[in-house]
Amino acid sequence: MDLGAKLNGKRVLITGASSGLGENFARLAAGCKAKVVIAARRKGRLEKLAKELEQLGAPQVTVIEMDAASEPSIDAAFAQIDASGDMLDVVVNNAGVSNDGLALTLPTKDFDDLMAVNVRAVWLVSVRAAQRWQAAGRGGSIINIASIQGERVMPGITPYSTSKAAVVHMTKSLALEWARWDIRVNAIEPGYIGTEMTDAMWETDYGKALIKRIPMRRLGKPEELNGLFLLFATDAGSWMTGACVPVDGGHLCSSL
Ligand SMILES: NC(=O)c1ccc[n+]([C@@H]2O[C@H](COP(=O)([O-])OP(=O)(O)OC[C@H]3O[C@@H](n4cnc5c(N)ncnc54)[C@H](OP(=O)(O)O)[C@@H]3O)[C@@H](O)[C@H]2O)c1
Which of 68, 95, 100, 171 could form a disulfide with 16 if both were Cys (CB 3.0 to 4.6 A apart)? Predict the structure, then answer.
């Protein structure tokens, strides 16, 4: 079965597409000849990526400057999507931030800022997509990019782990509410993957020690998420909803 071919002609929104995993998903979708909508704050990077996506085979690329922390900005993004072509078929809630700091000294603002992007935006974007699909009497696929931190914890990133656990629960709860309309909601739980979010850490002694605790003893590559992404995005996964699946080199089942 050619999963990529199943994405041909579908319209896919990817938030946080200006770098890292989002950029990778945008390239994957473009290579499958999907219409790609890329959203993030750094418009210059999106515009550069858009040219590449066209060369990769995307029949339509829509660039949207969107601040996921702002509800009006998300509303404006959906207005732009509505005005610029077909309905979405797949929505990828990928935009995310992390911060470091022990709970006793972390400023409240850091907690709030992280939750606005990692949790509230997932909610706002998902609801807007599902409202449109329900009104049109058709289904759709939402893919949330959670994390292994949504299942287990480590010190120093409590807001991040908490946010990803919220995404895991939101995925299951929205899947339950929307399954009757064939709106599927699933989550990928990546382990450690080298991207701008984490690159600096892997050079430190702490980072190197972390990699040794991954059973496969290496970081993942963004493209190692692509198989699961295509399963969730296409009708190859038509009976999958509420699934939160780790892709992590075995990290979640590492030895206690
Ligand atoms: N890398 C890993 O090891 C790993 C592991 C598990 C889960 N994840 C998750 O994967 C997702 C992507 O992370 P990444 O590793 O690819 O990190 P990244 O390279 O730092 O990318 C994060 C993306 O999110 C966007 N973003 C951040 N704040 C935003 C905002 N307020 N509005 C709109 N977009 C915003 C950024 O775009 P702009 O700055 O241009 O807005 C950027 O495109 C995140 O949800 C992350 O938690 C990553």
Answer: 95
